Fold NAD(P)-dependent dehydrogenase, short-chain alcohol dehydrogenase family.
Amino acid sequence: TKEFQGKKALVTGATSGIGRAIAVRLAEEGATVYVTGRRAELGKETVELIEQAGGTGHFVVADVGDLDDVRKLVQEVGDVDVLVNNAGIFPFSPTPEQSVETYDKVFDVNVRGTYFLTAALAPAMVAKGRGAIVNVSSVASQLGSPVGSVYHASKSAMDGLTRSWALEFGGSGVRVNSVAPGPIRTEAAVTQVGEVFESFVEVVPVGRHGTAEEVAEAVLFVASDKAGFVNGAVLNVDGGLVVA
Ligand code: NAD
């Protein structure tokens, strides 16, 4: 049988990029996948890709930065076996020029959304005595940036949540891990990060960018029963960037 047969998964920000790849792979491995994001058209496209792959998917519109939306999302989806906190934004700005609005938005989506969605869904996992939570952080959690302080801080915060939740829920059979991508060739990364993104080829030891599918494989591993003893880890999927 397939690894995630009979399991229910929720993937945030699954309307594009890495989140979409995670949603499709979880569905291919048998999970019923709830796809969430703000953009209905793109969410439905993800569901179509899931169905083309022979899986089962549902789209629920939600802005994870909005706590009312998070509450509605949880009501609509119900309990899950796997939660992937992937939704994220990555605007860059020098610190003195950072607007309060953008600062708040980065923390609202990357940290607060992750926090309160997990807070709402973890109790049912704890009650069942099983479940997996995966935070898609970034190697930014472990690296500095001269132009991305807010983003980097938010991703460090996500890994801090991972470590604390691994202790808080681990004793109840609920494992919590981060998958930290390096430069991954998604449309958003290419268009929003631009030349800096392209220049990573020179510093990544394997000499190329990663793919959304490669990140999805790592997420599936830490979410699967095969990773039963992996808890509180930050798995870098970065071609060796952090150790370069
Ligand atoms: P992306 O923009 O395609 O994916 C982010 C998704 O989150 C999008 O679907 C977006 O619509 C959604 N989202 C944004 N704000 C949201 C909100 N308020 N509510 C719900 N959904 C929201 O980019 P991606 O490259 O696929 O990135 C996915 C994740 O991986 C992000 O958390 C990003 O920080 C992380 N990451 C990406 C890279 C990379 O190089 N691509 C590297 C490290 C980490």
Q: What stands out?
A: Residues 12-13, 15-19, 37-39, 63-65, 86-90, 109, 136, 138, 181, 183-184, 186, 188-189 surround nicotinamide-adenine-dinucleotide (CB under 6 Å). The chain has a mean pLDDT of 98.
